[in-house]
Structures are given as C-alpha cells and as structure tokens.
Amino acid sequence: MNEQRIDGQGGGLTRRDFLTAAGAGAALAGVASSVVSPARADGLIHTATVAADPGALPPPIRRNHPVHHDVTLEAREVRARLDDGSEFGFMTWNGQVPGPLIRVRQGDTVTLTVRSASTNMRPHCLDVHAVYGSGGGALATMVPPGGTAREFFQCRYPGAFIYHCAVANMDEHISRGMFGMILVEPQAGLAPVSREFYLGQHELYTREPFGSSGLLHFDYASMVREQPNFVLFNGRVRGLTAAGIGPMRAQVGETVRIFMVNGGPNLSSSFHPIGNVWRRCWPQGALANAPLEYVQTQPVAPGSCFVGEMELPLAQSIKLVDHALSRVARQGLLAEIVVAGAPAPGLFHAIG
Ligand SMILES: [Cu+2]
C-alpha cells in the first residue's frame, strides 16, 4: 500500500516536508516552492507563489502488479503573486497550480481524501476524469470549509486525465487554479526518458487589464464572454521562465517527456515547442493509442491533457507556448526549457 497524507491544515507545509512525504513509491509529489504563511486579516492564506515546480512529480512506475494508494488533496484558497507587481486570490489543491500530479498504474485502487482548509470561504469538490463514478466523484467529495470527505475508486483505463473542482461556479474555481492531472500508466509502463516535467495552462478573467498592479479581482462578465486578460502556465505570469519561478533545465542528448493539463476553463491550447517538435505525442493524453510522430502543434482542449516527448540534439532555449500567440505576447503565457551542452554546427548555426 502506498500511503500519502499531505498535511497542510492552516498552512505550514514546506517543500522539504513534501519531498519527505513523497518518498518510496508515492503516488503524489510536488508543491509550491514557498512556505505557506498563516491566514491574515482578509481571511486568506498568503503565499509568495502558487506556481508548481514542474520537476516535482512522482517517478515512473516500475512494478507489474496493482497496489492501493491513499491520496489526500486539500482545497486551499490563497492570495499569491501573479507577477512581481500584482496579486490574485487563487483557489488551489495543496496550495499549488496545477494541483499535484497523482501517478498510478492501470488497475490500481485509490482512497481519495478531499479536505477543505478551515480558512476557505467556499465549498469545493473533485471531478476526476480517470474514474467511473457519478460526476467523477464530485458529490462524494463535496466539502465545506474545514470539512473532509473520502471516496474509493479503481483506475480501470490508462491515460493522462484532468481532475478539477466541480461546484456550481466550477468555471470560476478552475480559472482560479483548481485543476490538476491524474496519470494512469498503462500496464506495460512508459518508455524510459531522461526527464519528465509537468505543467498546467489556464486563463484568468480579471476586472483590471494585464499589467495592472496591486490586488486584481475576478470578473464574471469577461468569463461569460470568454475574454480573459491573462493566459498562464502554473498561475504565474511567464510562469516557467526567469520572470516567474525559473525555467526547466535539461542537457543535450537527453529525451524529455512533458505532461500538460489544460484547465481552461474555456480556451483550447495549441501546444507547440518553439525550435523543436513533439517527437512522439499522445493527443488528449490517450496513452492506449499509438503516438503521433513529429507533430509541430497539438491541440489540447480545456478539460483534457497532453503527453509528449522531445529529443534534445541541440543546446538551445525551447519555449513552450500556446501558438495562439497573442496569449504569449500580451497575456503572460510562457514556459522555457534551457538545454545545455556543446554547439552542434552541423545541425544548426547562424551564418550572419
Ligand atoms: Cu472549488
């Protein structure tokens, strides 16, 4: 049995605590890289960032038999930085966006405990796309602030699936950050790669325009029109670059696998690695199917996932973008993989 309790009642979960908890076959790993501070006068927990570390995910599964997992997710409403000059009221699973990647194998069973921090203001619940169950378990996991609910499920089919809050205002809650991925590995497992990264796209609807300072406010009217001011990776402007929590890093000659979940709630992503290609990818994260090969730009619908692999023959900066490029140029969406190594002029060089 893999037992996971991710304790964060009232904050206080540190990265070291989390990594300790994530040892030995854990189904769950990763947390926002900052320490959560206690609630302040506005009732919300304040934290520097909700952006999940893209390298903090459980390791590939190497067993050939099913096991049972105990997984705990805590709904946590927090106030955190959107960029260096602005803040936003996020809603999160375990204080991070996207929520922790839950990693299991086809046939595994899970006891999922959903808790809600006592500092929260709203009810929350979880719809898990990897399970047969009414509402994906949304009713079974509905919790008020301070509440706890539990459910059992078996993961019968493989793939990368979204989980997300599914209360009446689900679009707002997902936009504010309440989504993540459950990866159900096929029984044959996944091919070995050098590194894996995990990130999540979503859009924010704010009263204030992009680039505003101070605390920004959610705007229902622009959400109904599906016209966000921010499109983000991991809840942070230019989230996975030096302007956010830092780029991902790899070495020439390695192969990397990217897991991407698109929370939306409304915008599809046209997911593209600038300066590279998806060597193999699985549309919708549907791992039971043969991969597509050498794909430039792969659609990722809201409420769906993507699994793709890249070869890294060249030292370069690879930008991961939604190729609806106004979202990159004007709405804050950007991630970067810095690939270190010797030049390969036979492959590419500027002539001048
Ligand atoms: Cu919610």
Explain how this protein is built.
The chain has 352 residues and is mainly beta. It contains 4 helices and 23 strands. It has helices at residues 15-21, 170-175, 220-224, 326-330, and strands at 2-3, 28-29, 45-46, 68-83, 86-93, 99-105, 109-116, 127-128, 148-154, 159-164, 179-185, 195-204, 214-215, 230-233, 248-251, 255-264, 269-274, 278-282, 292-295, 298-300, 304-311, 316-322, 335-340. Strands 1, 3, 4, 5, 7, 9 and 13 form a 7-stranded mixed β-sheet that branches. A 6-stranded mixed β-sheet has the order 14-12-16-21-18-19. It is globular. It binds copper (II) ion. Copper (II) ion is lined by residues 91, 124, 165, 167, 173, 178.
Q: What attributes characterize this protein structure?
A:
352 residues; mainly beta; Immunoglobulin-like; seven-stranded mixed sheet; six-stranded mixed sheet; 4 helices; 23 strands; disordered N terminus; binds copper (II) ion
In short:
The protein has 4 helices and 23 strands. It is mostly beta strands and 352 residues long. Bound molecules: copper (II) ion (CU).
What secondary-structure arrangement, pairings included, does this model have?
Layout: E1 2-3, H1 15-21, E2 28-29, E3 45-46, E4 68-83, E5 86-93, E6 99-105, E7 109-116, E8 127-128, E9 148-154, E10 159-164, H2 170-175, E11 179-185, E12 195-204, E13 214-215, H3 220-224, E14 230-233, E15 248-251, E16 255-264, E17 269-274, E18 278-282, E19 292-295, E20 298-300, E21 304-311, E22 316-322, H4 326-330, E23 335-340
Parallel strand pairs: 1-4, 3-4, 4-7, 5-13, 6-11, 12-16, 15-23
Antiparallel strand pairs: 2-6, 4-5, 7-9, 8-10, 10-11, 12-14, 16-21, 17-20, 17-22, 18-19, 18-21, 22-23
The structure holds copper (II) ion (CU).
